[in-house]
Each structure stands twice: as structure tokens, then as C-alpha cells.
Amino acid sequence: MNQIAQDIAAIDDKLSKRDLALDNGGYFIIYLDREAKLICAKHFTNAIDSRGRAVDPETGKVIPARGKVERTAETLYTARTAKELCVKIFEEAQPCPVTLLDHAAYLGREFIRAELALISGQEYVQD
User: Is residue 115 part of a domain?
Assistant: First the structure.
């Protein structure tokens, strides 16, 4: 890895550890369906409790940031490109499931990463 790539990776690693405000609109689990050649984004609703944690709106239980959670997605969005997925979520979905600009920016970055992994055959792991 060259120096520029190392510097960029270090910046991204540092920024990935910052605190974020959670979106009242919910969250997405992003993955690839390589057989269908699609980028997939499952949208889950949530509520934000008084301590700023995402909770299941039906049970009130905290949704952990890591590990397996058994929940049913509200909507599954699929597309062939990052741009197509952004159009479906941010322009066509009514109401838009994303309520924070920083969440929208994060999703755009992740959709591009997923698209590049789909093209290159590399593994995609959501940040």
C-alpha cells in the first residue's frame, strides 16, 4: 500500500470511531447479492431513547451496535449501482426513511464502497 493509501486509511479509521447522532428514521444493513449483481439495503425502523440509544419501537429494547439482532426489515431496497440505490431511497421513497444529512452522506459513501466491491469481486463489510 502506498503512502497516500495509508494516510487515507488512517483518516478513515479515525473518523469511523467518532460519536454519531442516531437517525430517528432508522438504520440500514447493507450487503451484496453477487448472484443477482445487486447492492442491497435493508431498512429497519427504530426509536431513540432518552440516552440517545436506538431501541426497537415495538419492544423498547436497546438495539446493539454489534452482534446478531432478530428483527424484521421495514423495506428492502436493491439496485445495480450506488446512484440507483440513492435515487430509490432519497428521491422515490415517500416518506424518505433518512432524516439526518450525515446519515445520508454515510449511506452514499457505503453504497459506493459496496458498488466497488461488487465490480472488483472484493469482500464488502459495512463500516
Answer: yes
Residue at 126 is within a domain: no
Q: Mind listing the pLDDT tens digit for each residue in 46-63?
A: 999 988 888 988 888 898
What is the domain count for the chain? 1
Summarize pLDDT for 3-38 with one digit per residue, the tens.
999 999 899 889 988 888 889 999 999 999 999 999
In a domain, 51, yes or no: yes
Residue identified by cell 433518512 is 98
